[in-house]
Amino acid sequence: MDRLVESTLKHGLIPPVVMEFPGITAGGGFAGTGGESSSFKYGYFNEIVDSVEMVLGNGDIITASDKENSDLFHGASGAVGSLGITTLLEIQLMQAKQYVKVTYYPTRSIPEAIAKIRAEIENSELDYVDGILYSKEHGVVVTGCLTDDIPDSAQVQRFSDADDPWYYLHVKEKTLGSLQPIAEYIPLSEYLFRYDRGGFWVGASAFEYFKFPFNHFTRRFLDDFLHTRMLYRALHASEQSRNYIVQDLALPFSTAEKFIDYTVDSFGIWPLWLCPLRQSRLPALHPHFPETEADGQTLKPMLNVGLWGFGPAQHDKFVAKNLELERKLREFRGMKWLYAHTYYEEDEFWDLFDRRWYDGLRRKYKAESLPSVWHKVKVDPNAQKQAIDGSWGSWALQFWPLGGLWGIRKAIESGEYLTARNSTWKRRDGFSSSR
Asked: According to the model, what pLDDT value does residue 433 have?
């Protein structure tokens, strides 16, 4: 994403939907589910794609768009590569502006935060809406408007430098004792990738794991390790992801409060990310629910809940907790994003999606030799446990702090920290910071 934004900003343009982690690819956003703070307005990332080139299961190269192979074009979004491999995308761009004027609306309860988001997405003048719940009593709804004009007295806030605050901590501090909205101006690219340092707040878990002080000095000193590319490289290499909850869960607004109450009681994970989503047309492999507005045609928006934090350390308990989460999500008519740990049995999975439609696309476009979407996302707990027990390396990584140290080593070897260092989107003499 960062390379794409750097290229388009040279021409004064940006994609309407930008995934908020710089290392996510455009192809991944199309084949997966990419919902961000502009998705209340534009929908998932695939909604800004005009056409794709794909390699099918039999080796044929095909172009798909709303006008050509439109069924494949629609079905391949969210299908995680199970209908073919995306090799080229044509995407929409819109006029960029120098800054985003953000307004932080403090909230003092979960229902207040949900209601505020629901109200703000009706405002057509807004470009971005999301929210953070720090606790039951402290939440913040954040709205954003693109602008070239800022008051002379305004201070520009940035988040990309080692001396800058992490975004979520900055918002928490600014709103902790306030009941009134607070506005500030953020350079556009800094806003788009505001969650990069700290990976939302997942980076704080590394300090918790190592029992290391968590403060401005230590975050600054370890900054190279705390950008999303490095964080997720270390998380997976360390195999700590096997007991770390990373789930995005989309629900109807009407059931979101009760579901959040459940996650608080059952997981105790804070903060939570709230992101309103405009649904894609059905059938779809994205999260959805088939309830319409009064016009009988427009699908109602959904609210995504980002649940990211430590789960039970014991493997069987971790699996049981995920299975419980999936049951509760269905009870509240929600759906998870398919990038995450998915434990549904095949029949359960296809109760959520239109299998006849999907299998028809697989036959028509010669994809039956490829793994199905369920096979690609399904976690097999027994095979996972056998892999841990059968490998001395995986077995050893369970013990503190071996897993974490191995993850750090592999992250350093990857050289990903150099990518963050050399990113031009955060240059302070470039498009995003000129006044």
From this structure: 40
The rounded distance, in Å, linking the Cα atoms of 75 and 242 is: 30
pLDDT band at 79 (very low <50, low <70, confident <90, very high): very high
Whole-number Å distance between alpha carbons of 412 and 230: 8
The number of angstroms, rounded, from the C-alpha of 314 to the middle of its chain's C-alpha atoms is 26
Query: Strand, helix or coil at 367?
Result: coil
pLDDT digits (tens, 9 = 90+) for 24-41: 999 999 999 999 999 999
CA dihedral 378→239→35→194, nearest 10 degrees, is 180
User: What CA–CA distance (Å, rounded) separates 17 from 43?
Assistant: 8
User: In sequence order, what are the beta bridge partners of 88?
Assistant: 53
- Distance (Å) of CA 335 to CA 44, 110, 129, 380, 417: 15, 20, 21, 20, 34
Using one digit for the tens of pLDDT, what is the confidence trace for 206-250?
999 999 999 999 999 999 999 999 999 999 999 999 999 999 999
Residue 186 · residue 158 · CB < 8 Å = yes
SS3 366: coil
Query: Which stretches within 141-198 are classed as H helix?
Result: 167-175, 188-192
Sheet with 49-55: list strands edge to edge.
61-65, 49-55, 85-91
Task: Please tell me whether the overall predicted TM-score, pTM, comes out greater than 0.90 for this model.
Answer: yes
